[in-house]
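TICKET: design request
STATUS: open
ATTACHED STRUCTURE:
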């Protein structure tokens, strides 16, 4: 194993990490939309799928701007979030109402992870003087923040409706 000593190497590694994570989400979001019985939640997952596909393209463009080949790095963080979802849905067999609430939380966990990753990447891109990368990463970051806000709005509505039922 080699020792990583260059901040640019770390930046490329973390860029690969978020590329992997976004690709996992491209595959997971259709399943989340299918599991959701709430129309607004389902539509939100479907809408975010299109954004997530664009996030992948933006990351690939960031690699190109760096003169590098896009290379995904296995992301244990997103794998853990996905495993938590899969285990819960299989073991708990939640009612539709509980599943919808759980899905808002699962989606929020993924959004928080992505927001943290993009924030770190943006700081590094700016420090390295990679303005084109910074612009692409900031576009993704802002969309993730909006997606999180939408999930939180749906979660509050569903939680309130469940509490009064």
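STATUS: resolved
RESOLUTION: sequence designed for all positions
ATTACHED SEQUENCE:
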């Amino acid at each position: 194993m080699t020792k990583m000593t260059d901040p640019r190497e770390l930046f490329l590694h973390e860029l690969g990490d978020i590329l992997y994570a976004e690709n996992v989400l491209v595959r997971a979001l259709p399943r989340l939309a299918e599991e959701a019985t709430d129309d607004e939640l389902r539509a939100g997952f479907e809408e975010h799928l299109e954004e997530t596909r664009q996030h992948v393209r933006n990351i690939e463009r960031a690699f190109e701007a760096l003169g590098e080949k896009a290379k995904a790095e296995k992301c244990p963080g997103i794998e853990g979030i996905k495993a938590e979802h899969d285990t819960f849905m299989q073991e708990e067999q939640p009612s539709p109402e509980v599943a919808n609430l759980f899905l808002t939380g699962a989606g929020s966990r993924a959004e928080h992870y992505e927001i943290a990753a993009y924030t770190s990447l943006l700081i590094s891109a700016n420090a390295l003087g990679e303005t084109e990368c910074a612009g692409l990463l900031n576009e993704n970051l802002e969309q993730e923040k909006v997606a999180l806000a939408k999930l939180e709005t749906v979660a509050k509505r569903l939680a309130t409706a469940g509490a009064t039922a």
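CLOSING REMARK: DSSP finds five helices and no strands in the chain. The CA atoms of residues 8 and 128 lie 7 Å apart.
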